[in-house]
Amino acid sequence: MTIRLGGIPALLLLATASAGPATAEHLDVPNLFASVCGFCHEDGGRKAGKGPRLMNTERSDEFLRNRIAKGRPGRMPAFGKMFSDEDIDEIVAYIRALEPREEASVR
Amino acid sequence: MRKHLLLTAAVVGFAAVVPPTGPAWAVDPSRLENAAKNPNDWLMYRRSYEDWQYSPLDQINTTNVKDLKVAWTHTPGRATRGLQSMPLVADGVLYYSGSYSRLFALDAATGELIWSYIPELNEDLIAQQTHSPYNRGIALGHGNVYVGTVDGRLIAVDMKTGAPVWDTKLVDSEKLTVGFTGAPIVVKDKVLIGAQGGEWPWRGPIFGVDAKTGKKVWEFFTVAGTEEAKKTWGNESWRTGGGGGWMPGTYNQAKDIVYWGTGNPAPLYDWAGPDWETKGPRPGTNLYTSSVIALDPDTGELVSYFQELPHDAWDFDSAVGEFLRIERDGETYIVHPNKGGYVYVYDEMLNFKNAWPLVKNINFIEGVDEKGNLIGRRDMREGKHTNLCPAIAGGISWNSGTYNPKTGLYYKVGNEWCMDLEIVKTTPILEPMAQLNIGANFTFTDPEGGKAYGHVDARDPITGELAWRIDFPEPPLASLLSTGGDLLFVPDARGVLRAYDARNGTELWSQNNGLGHNGGIISYAVDGKQYITVAVGWGSLVGDAYPDLFGEPYKSMATDQGWLVTFTLPE
After folding, report:
1. Which residues in chain B are closer than 8 Å to A13, comparing Cβ atoms?
2. Would you say residue B492 lies in a domain?
3. ipTM field
4. What is the pLDDT at residue A103?
5. Would the pLDDT of B317 be above 70?
6. In 3-state terms, what secondary structure has residue A70?
7. Domain count for chain A
């Protein structure tokens, strides 16, 4: 089971989880970037860092899914054990929807 | 005669008695305690417990250094993320570790292989790890070579033959994803090693293990390791605290204590901003993270500590950084650099003396007062913030500087870079653990009015007074070496190894090693001949930021290669 991310208190999360099948649970992808992926994919995936910029990637969905699940040895960790296929679909949807920030602040 | 137990990768905590071997092979505790006095060897991570990263050898000097030639090279193979470790030398044999904790013993004069030991690791786990599969060094003692693994084990291998002696699983890496990348140290009859992880939601233990049997004797949690410390983690946040002591500490023989630096707490950034004492993900000062601690090496009990950054909200570990022990005017000082860019000075019991900035671009605090309190902390709430300096990679990175007792100067790399960030409320992913728990999106930026760069400073270690400085277009990321021949060696990020006059910074020699440096450098002698050995290889997580920050040659630089290069003077 993946413990969901987000500004929801952990206790509440546990309560939801034990209340029955997760229905409206969505992976909070922006939070995932702020806690894990953003270490290498900067500014929520809008900018390169240790890893490439994800916004406007020309790779296919399948490639992205595969990279997230299997990683790249010595460059990017494999997340296939942490996320379900549906979670990974949500991550890919987030990447596809990325747009530049409105402010022109960040280099 | 030796007895060996052949162990498989999965075997947990095991013992085999190793009978004493010949004197030439034994590195006993007294030899380690006197390592500084023996010019020929390099017996531990920063050469001696004084942590100077200095060799007294003077055959290679300011006049003849221009004649240095390559004596031999060696590659460990499978050098994923380069070669980040520090070789060691005892009695004409060089020992070193590569990525995946691959161990080698070589004839230190010729590079000829004596033995190798390639441990079997959990490759599935490694694929899931971020700070992996590099290894930063080994320890010698009691007839063994000791190395940690990224899958949570500490291994002892016979120094003479490379045969495994014991193999102890210390951390449940399959559950926690953390393991060991830092070098162990040998203190008396124990091997000490710290686990990884400020970014990881765990409790950063340091272990004391019986050097002969591999039995775990003690474990100190850097996160809430005492009842007092537990109170500094509101809402039981110590359970996911971080704090790994991921670089080796050192031993003070006179006081019989071990110094260790600890990692930052998790998450790295705190959305509660200035309300951190009562609110946010980890309310309180979060002892003993971003601290220097003194432990009793026999029991692992805490003897003393100083928290450099109470409630670190910037990822500025105390895990980086040597513990230089320096005598001056009848007093003994301990000098310890912190990742935030300040160098802290203590007495032997870690009572704060003063702190001085090595780095120019620092604005996470305005300063450190005469008691060691932070002045003008920049506690940032949830939301956007610009121009935080230094950047997450730190004003000071984990490789070591060097102190030269002849010049009285301390040589150390400073990094000048900043970042913009957006602090976000997050909760860690725990099952299975996704390792990182950052708490922000960030982007590296240039410091105001200039470009990101690095410098090597020559300073008084106690006062910080600057003697001279050399700028580099990108911060060098390797350890430095100074010698009794008045030389300072700087292995730079582009791959050029340079030698300077340690007294004034005049460049005397350089050699392009063909790939960035990101590991150790040592000097030793065999049969009266002095050698310099440097680790060549690129690919640490800090280095991973270079292609985007600096462009070429980093965009094209290999991160899966590494080798040792050894230099000496021609006959």
Report:
1. 427
2. yes
3. 0.87
4. 61
5. yes
6. helix
7. 1
